[in-house]
Amino acid sequence: MDTPEQRIQIAVQKTGRLTDHSIDLLQRCGLKLTQSKDQLFLYGENMPIDLLLVRDDDIPGLVSDDVCDLGIVGLNVVEEKRQELLCGGREPRFKQVFELDFGHCRLSLAAPDGTEYSDRTSLNNTKIATSYVNILREYLTKNDIDAEPVYFSGAVEIAPKLGRADYICDLVSTGSTLAANGLTEVETLLESEAVVIQTEAILGDEKQALVDRMLQRLDGVLQVRESKYIMLHAPRDALPQIRDLLPGSEAPTVLPLDGADDKVAVHAVCRENVFWETLENLKAAGASSLLVIPVEKMLA
Ligand code: PRT
Ligand code: ZN
């Protein structure tokens, strides 16, 4: 049995928008998980890696304090914690290592419909309701705006109706919550998505090796997301043009074709999506027998 020091902990949102995607991502890295009785952990059965299931707001703090080695959380939450620590005179001890392309949203300022808003100067001498007080403060300072943040822990969109604020600063994804509450977006403070953060604390050799191994697997999983393996036959003299048409590929493998000296087989990993148009262009350049296959695993 591993001692706790030899196991690594990854902080993941317990229940919410990021939970399923986060667990799915780690399972695609080869982790097999069982839930603890108290439902606070998912234990790694085949690797000494456990997931700590917590509220998303706690994740950057847990990683910064080295309670967890890695965490998966929205950039909005990471930036809010970073600003909170900096305001308190403390250095955040986490770094962002991957963007995950899920949990997309933006942190925006919105005004009640009909508000006369020309530019940021319209925000002077107003109250702005938000759960993101630290990001908002930093934005106001940076843009030299004299406005007062008013903290709301949730349901920020009702603050103007309650007469508690003139504007709100909240997360937006489809925009339907704003529309339903008679609000219009006026500025974007931050574009956000889920990210992986890593502690900057110094780890023992064994633990560091395990973290590095997990990061390498994550990198592999993220790289194959858009990657495709493409195979085709091509006239030898069309090779330069065909190489140029292969999207995001490194040096392709060129193989002889039995009984056809003027033709070759070309195999390449394309790190971008391969669209129908690309295949049509390759065909027009002389390629035939085109085959596009999804890539399951990749190790650089
Ligand atoms: O309990 P816990 O604290 O862990 O969860 P939570 O309620 O704080 O977070 P959760 O699960 O709602 O969101 C987790 C993360 O998902 C956020 O930190 C963001 O990084 C990301 N995310 C992506 C969103 C949204 N999209 C989103 N639309 N988080 C919240 N919203 C909310 C927003 O606050 C607003 O109320 O959805 C509403 C707006 O949505 P639209 O589609 O109407 O614009
Ligand atoms: Zn939260």
Offer a quick outline of the entry:
With 300 residues, the chain is an alpha+beta fold. 27% of the residues lie in helices and 33% in strands. The protein binds phosphoribosyl ATP and zinc ion.
Tell me about this structure.
The protein is α+β, with helices and mostly antiparallel strands and 300 residues long. It has three domains: 4-103 and 194-223, Periplasmic binding protein-like II (D-Maltodextrin-Binding Protein, domain 2, 3-Layer(aba) Sandwich), CATH 3.40.190.10; 105-192, Periplasmic binding protein-like II (D-Maltodextrin-Binding Protein, domain 2, 3-Layer(aba) Sandwich); 228-294, 2-Layer Sandwich (Alpha-Beta Plaits). 27% of the residues lie in helices and 33% in strands. It has helices at 19-28, 59-64, 75-87, 133-142, 176-180, 205-224, 239-245, 276-284; strands at 8-13, 33-35, 41-44, 49-54, 70-74, 94-99, 105-112, 127-130, 148-151, 167-172, 183-192, 194-199, 228-235, 253-257, 260-270, 288-294. Strands 2-3-4-1-5-12-6 form a seven-stranded mixed beta sheet. Strands 9-8-10-7-11 form a five-stranded mixed beta sheet. A four-stranded antiparallel beta sheet has the order 14-15-13-16, covered by helices on one side. Strand 3 (41-44) and strand 4 form a beta hairpin. It starts with 7 loop residues before the first strand and ends in a 6-residue tail after the last strand. The structure holds phosphoribosyl ATP and zinc ion (ZN). Residues 55-57 line the site of zinc ion (ZN).
